[in-house]
Design goal:
By secondary structure, the chain is mainly alpha-helical. The protein is built from nine helices and no strands. 67% of the residues lie in helices and 0% in strands. The longest helix has 24 residues.
């Protein structure tokens, strides 16, 4: 599915494209999936779960929140860069897919936003406005989808330091001018 989407886009991808690229028969496809939409949803869910597992595994051993954030970001960028077709599915085609898949994409953004919220024990963590992590998640995914659309997926890891700085400083409370 990911390879077909990367080549044709969601609207123009046909089941024929998916079965040809997968080396399956139409009958085998329909044994597993009722439609293109169901296959897309399964591919999206699998991709999100694998991405989440990579990020969580990388961040698990770190104690400091900013170090966990950096390790998770690095792992996520490396994961996406290693599979441009999947990155395209997760970051671009999810917005063009049928409504249930778009809703799943919104749930994924909510999960990402919660992962970006610093614990209250972190300086600034207790004063972060409720919507800030969602805005950070949206900005992050928008930047990444732009890079994917530009054909720069393999270079996503190069943005680690820039994105980490964005995530760490964008959520800081504003300093008051005295």
């Amino acid at each position: 599915m990911a390879a077909a989407l990367a080549y044709h886009g969601y609207e123009d991808t046909k089941i024929t494209d998916v079965v040809e690229l997968a080396g399956l028969s139409r009958a085998t496809f329909y044994e597993r999936f009722d439609s293109k939409e169901v296959c897309f949803a399964a591919a999206y869910e699998d991709g999100v779960e694998r991405l989440t597992a990579a990020v969580e595994a990388a961040a698990a051993g770190e104690i400091a929140w900013d170090t966990r954030l950096s390790a998770g970001l690095r792992a996520g960028l490396d994961f996406l860069a290693a599979d441009p077709a999947l990155a395209h599915l997760l970051l671009v085609e999810a917005l063009a897919a049928a409504r249930p898949a778009r809703l799943e994409h919104e749930r994924s953004l909510t999960r990402l936003a919660e992962a970006l919220r610093p614990p209250a024990a972190v300086p600034g963590g207790e004063v972060m406005p409720e919507e800030t992590p969602r805005l950070l998640a949206g900005g992050l995914t928008s930047h990444l989808s732009g890079r994917v659309l530009a054909g720069e997926t393999e270079r996503l890891a190069e943005d680690h330091d820039l994105l980490l700085q964005y995530l760490l400083t964008a959520g800081e409370p504003p300093t008051s001018a005295s």
